[in-house]
Protein backbone atom coordinates (compact mmCIF):
# COMPACT_ATOMS: atom_id res chain seq x y z
CA UNK A 1 0.00 0.00 0.00
CA UNK A 2 2.87 2.41 0.71
CA UNK A 3 4.22 2.02 -2.82
CA UNK A 4 0.79 2.62 -4.37
CA UNK A 5 0.29 5.70 -2.23
CA UNK A 6 3.76 6.99 -3.11
CA UNK A 7 3.07 6.45 -6.80
CA UNK A 8 -0.15 8.45 -6.48
CA UNK A 9 1.65 11.31 -4.71
CA UNK A 10 4.36 11.34 -7.38
CA UNK A 11 1.84 11.26 -10.24
CA UNK A 12 -0.12 14.10 -8.66
CA UNK A 13 3.05 16.19 -8.52
CA UNK A 14 2.62 16.96 -4.83
CA UNK A 15 5.52 18.78 -3.19
CA UNK A 16 6.48 19.15 0.49
CA UNK A 17 3.90 21.38 2.11
CA UNK A 18 1.10 20.20 -0.18
CA UNK A 19 -2.11 18.90 1.35
CA UNK A 20 -2.99 15.32 0.40
CA UNK A 21 -6.54 14.50 -0.70
CA UNK A 22 -8.91 13.38 2.05
CA UNK A 23 -8.84 9.73 3.13
CA UNK A 24 -12.16 9.09 1.38
CA UNK A 25 -10.84 10.38 -1.95
CA UNK A 26 -7.58 8.46 -1.63
CA UNK A 27 -9.49 5.29 -0.85
CA UNK A 28 -11.67 5.73 -3.94
CA UNK A 29 -8.75 6.47 -6.23
CA UNK A 30 -6.61 3.61 -4.97
CA UNK A 31 -9.59 1.25 -4.64
CA UNK A 32 -8.94 0.26 -1.04
CA UNK A 33 -10.71 0.79 2.26
CA UNK A 34 -10.33 3.99 4.24
CA UNK A 35 -8.80 2.03 7.11
CA UNK A 36 -6.01 0.88 4.77
CA UNK A 37 -5.30 4.47 3.76
CA UNK A 38 -5.41 5.59 7.39
CA UNK A 39 -2.86 2.97 8.47
CA UNK A 40 -0.55 3.82 5.56
CA UNK A 41 -0.67 7.51 6.44
CA UNK A 42 0.06 6.73 10.09
CA UNK A 43 3.14 4.79 9.03
CA UNK A 44 4.25 7.68 6.89
CA UNK A 45 3.71 10.07 9.77
CA UNK A 46 5.86 7.89 12.05
CA UNK A 47 8.61 8.01 9.43
CA UNK A 48 8.38 11.77 8.99
CA UNK A 49 6.99 11.67 5.45
CA UNK A 50 3.70 13.41 6.24
CA UNK A 51 2.17 15.48 9.01
CA UNK A 52 -1.41 14.74 10.02
CA UNK A 53 -3.00 17.90 11.41
CA UNK A 54 -6.23 17.44 13.30
CA UNK A 55 -9.04 19.36 11.65
CA UNK A 56 -6.84 20.44 8.75
CA UNK A 57 -5.68 17.38 6.86
CA UNK A 58 -2.52 15.53 5.94
CA UNK A 59 0.46 17.41 4.52
CA UNK A 60 3.49 16.07 2.67
CA UNK A 61 6.80 16.72 4.43
CA UNK A 62 9.28 14.74 2.27
CA UNK A 63 9.60 14.76 -1.54
CA UNK A 64 8.55 11.65 -3.48
CA UNK A 65 9.38 12.18 -7.14
CA UNK A 66 8.74 9.64 -9.92
CA UNK A 67 12.35 8.50 -9.87
CA UNK A 68 12.45 8.19 -6.09
CA UNK A 69 9.32 6.21 -5.30
CA UNK A 70 10.91 2.81 -4.88
CA UNK A 71 14.04 4.20 -3.20
CA UNK A 72 11.96 6.20 -0.78
CA UNK A 73 9.60 3.37 0.11
CA UNK A 74 11.66 0.21 -0.07
CA UNK A 75 14.98 1.63 1.09
CA UNK A 76 14.96 5.11 2.61
CA UNK A 77 11.82 4.89 4.71
CA UNK A 78 12.43 1.32 5.81
CA UNK A 79 16.07 2.11 6.47
CA UNK A 80 15.16 5.10 8.64
CA UNK A 81 12.71 3.00 10.60
CA UNK A 82 15.29 0.25 11.10
CA UNK A 83 17.93 2.72 12.26
CA UNK A 84 15.52 4.03 14.90
CA UNK A 85 14.83 0.49 16.05
CA UNK A 86 18.56 -0.21 16.08
CA UNK A 87 19.07 2.58 18.62
CA UNK A 88 16.67 0.77 20.94
CA UNK A 89 18.28 -2.59 20.24
CA UNK A 90 21.71 -1.16 21.00
CA UNK A 91 20.57 0.17 24.36
CA UNK A 92 18.96 -3.13 25.34
CA UNK A 93 21.46 -5.58 23.92
CA UNK A 94 24.69 -4.01 25.11
CA UNK A 95 23.43 -3.75 28.68
CA UNK A 96 21.94 -7.25 28.59
CA UNK A 97 25.30 -8.67 27.48
CA UNK A 98 27.10 -6.94 30.35
CA UNK A 99 24.53 -8.07 32.92
CA UNK A 100 24.59 -11.64 31.59
CA UNK A 101 28.36 -11.67 32.02
CA UNK A 102 27.85 -10.92 35.71
CA UNK A 103 24.78 -13.06 36.42
CA UNK A 104 24.60 -16.00 34.02
CA UNK A 105 24.28 -19.35 35.78
CA UNK A 106 26.01 -22.51 34.50
CA UNK A 107 22.69 -23.55 32.98
CA UNK A 108 22.37 -20.16 31.28
CA UNK A 109 25.86 -20.48 29.81
CA UNK A 110 25.11 -23.99 28.58
CA UNK A 111 21.95 -22.72 26.88
CA UNK A 112 23.76 -19.80 25.24
CA UNK A 113 26.45 -22.20 24.01
CA UNK A 114 23.83 -24.54 22.57
CA UNK A 115 22.14 -21.68 20.74
CA UNK A 116 25.49 -20.48 19.42
CA UNK A 117 26.45 -23.90 18.12
CA UNK A 118 23.08 -24.36 16.40
CA UNK A 119 23.45 -20.95 14.81
CA UNK A 120 26.98 -21.71 13.63
CA UNK A 121 25.93 -25.05 12.13
CA UNK A 122 23.02 -23.56 10.20
CA UNK A 123 25.06 -20.56 9.10
CA UNK A 124 27.86 -22.81 7.85
CA UNK A 125 25.38 -24.85 5.81
CA UNK A 126 23.16 -22.12 4.40
CA UNK A 127 25.15 -18.90 4.74
CA UNK A 128 22.54 -17.44 7.08
CA UNK A 129 20.67 -18.46 10.22
CA UNK A 130 18.01 -15.86 11.07
CA UNK A 131 15.91 -17.92 13.48
CA UNK A 132 18.95 -19.38 15.25
CA UNK A 133 20.61 -15.95 15.49
CA UNK A 134 17.45 -14.58 17.11
CA UNK A 135 17.40 -17.45 19.62
CA UNK A 136 21.05 -16.83 20.47
CA UNK A 137 20.34 -13.22 21.37
CA UNK A 138 17.21 -14.22 23.30
CA UNK A 139 19.32 -16.63 25.35
CA UNK A 140 21.48 -13.72 26.45
CA UNK A 141 18.44 -11.69 27.49
CA UNK A 142 17.26 -14.67 29.53
CA UNK A 143 20.67 -14.97 31.17
CA UNK A 144 20.29 -11.50 32.71
CA UNK A 145 17.79 -12.97 35.17
CA UNK A 146 15.66 -9.87 34.63
CA UNK A 147 12.26 -10.77 33.09
CA UNK A 148 11.68 -7.16 32.03
CA UNK A 149 14.22 -7.58 29.25
CA UNK A 150 12.20 -10.39 27.70
CA UNK A 151 8.97 -8.47 28.20
CA UNK A 152 10.43 -5.49 26.33
CA UNK A 153 11.79 -7.69 23.57
CA UNK A 154 8.41 -9.39 23.24
CA UNK A 155 6.65 -6.03 22.99
CA UNK A 156 9.14 -4.91 20.33
CA UNK A 157 9.26 -8.27 18.54
CA UNK A 158 8.31 -7.06 15.07
CA UNK A 159 10.83 -4.23 15.08
CA UNK A 160 13.67 -6.28 16.53
CA UNK A 161 13.17 -9.57 14.70
CA UNK A 162 13.22 -7.76 11.35
CA UNK A 163 17.00 -7.35 11.71
CA UNK A 164 17.43 -11.11 11.50
CA UNK A 165 15.53 -11.49 8.22
CA UNK A 166 17.74 -9.38 5.92
CA UNK A 167 15.16 -6.56 5.87
CA UNK A 168 16.56 -4.73 2.84
CA UNK A 169 17.43 -7.87 0.84
CA UNK A 170 21.16 -7.22 0.80
CA UNK A 171 23.60 -10.00 -0.15
CA UNK A 172 25.58 -10.97 2.94
CA UNK A 173 23.70 -8.59 5.22
CA UNK A 174 25.60 -8.31 8.55
CA UNK A 175 27.51 -11.53 7.79
CA UNK A 176 30.74 -9.86 8.93
CA UNK A 177 29.33 -9.90 12.46
CA UNK A 178 29.03 -13.69 12.51
CA UNK A 179 32.44 -14.47 14.14
CA UNK A 180 31.75 -11.87 16.84
CA UNK A 181 28.88 -13.93 18.23
CA UNK A 182 31.30 -16.56 19.54
CA UNK A 183 33.50 -13.80 20.96
CA UNK A 184 30.44 -12.38 22.70
CA UNK A 185 29.66 -15.75 24.25
CA UNK A 186 33.28 -16.18 25.36
CA UNK A 187 33.23 -12.78 27.08
CA UNK A 188 30.01 -13.68 28.92
CA UNK A 189 31.44 -17.06 29.93
CA UNK A 190 34.63 -15.34 31.13
CA UNK A 191 32.57 -13.02 33.38
CA UNK A 192 33.89 -9.97 31.53
CA UNK A 193 31.04 -7.41 31.35
CA UNK A 194 32.96 -4.69 29.53
CA UNK A 195 34.20 -6.98 26.78
CA UNK A 196 30.72 -8.50 26.46
CA UNK A 197 29.25 -5.03 26.06
CA UNK A 198 31.92 -4.12 23.50
CA UNK A 199 31.28 -7.28 21.45
CA UNK A 200 27.53 -6.66 21.44
CA UNK A 201 28.12 -3.11 20.25
CA UNK A 202 30.56 -4.32 17.58
CA UNK A 203 27.90 -6.68 16.18
CA UNK A 204 25.38 -3.84 16.02
CA UNK A 205 27.93 -1.46 14.47
CA UNK A 206 28.29 -3.84 11.53
CA UNK A 207 24.50 -4.07 11.26
CA UNK A 208 24.27 -0.28 11.13
CA UNK A 209 27.03 -0.03 8.50
CA UNK A 210 25.19 -2.47 6.26
CA UNK A 211 21.86 -0.70 6.76
CA UNK A 212 23.38 2.63 5.79
CA UNK A 213 25.14 1.08 2.80
CA UNK A 214 21.79 -0.06 1.40
CA UNK A 215 20.90 3.46 0.32
CA UNK A 216 23.90 3.54 -1.97
CA UNK A 217 23.58 0.00 -3.32
CA UNK A 218 23.04 -0.30 -7.10
UniProtKB/TrEMBL annotation:
<feature type="domain" description="HTH gntR-type">
    <location>
        <begin position="1"/>
        <end position="63"/>
    </location>
</feature>
<keyword id="KW-0238">DNA-binding</keyword>
<dbReference type="Pfam" id="PF00392">
    <property type="entry name" value="GntR"/>
</dbReference>
<dbReference type="Pfam" id="PF07729">
    <property type="entry name" value="FCD"/>
</dbReference>
<dbReference type="InterPro" id="IPR008920">
    <property type="entry name" value="TF_FadR/GntR_C"/>
</dbReference>
<dbReference type="InterPro" id="IPR011711">
    <property type="entry name" value="GntR_C"/>
</dbReference>
<dbReference type="InterPro" id="IPR000524">
    <property type="entry name" value="Tscrpt_reg_HTH_GntR"/>
</dbReference>
<dbReference type="InterPro" id="IPR036390">
    <property type="entry name" value="WH_DNA-bd_sf"/>
</dbReference>
<protein>
    <submittedName>
        <fullName>FadR/GntR family transcriptional regulator</fullName>
    </submittedName>
</protein>
<keyword id="KW-0805">Transcription regulation</keyword>
<keyword id="KW-0804">Transcription</keyword>
<dbReference type="InterPro" id="IPR036388">
    <property type="entry name" value="WH-like_DNA-bd_sf"/>
</dbReference>
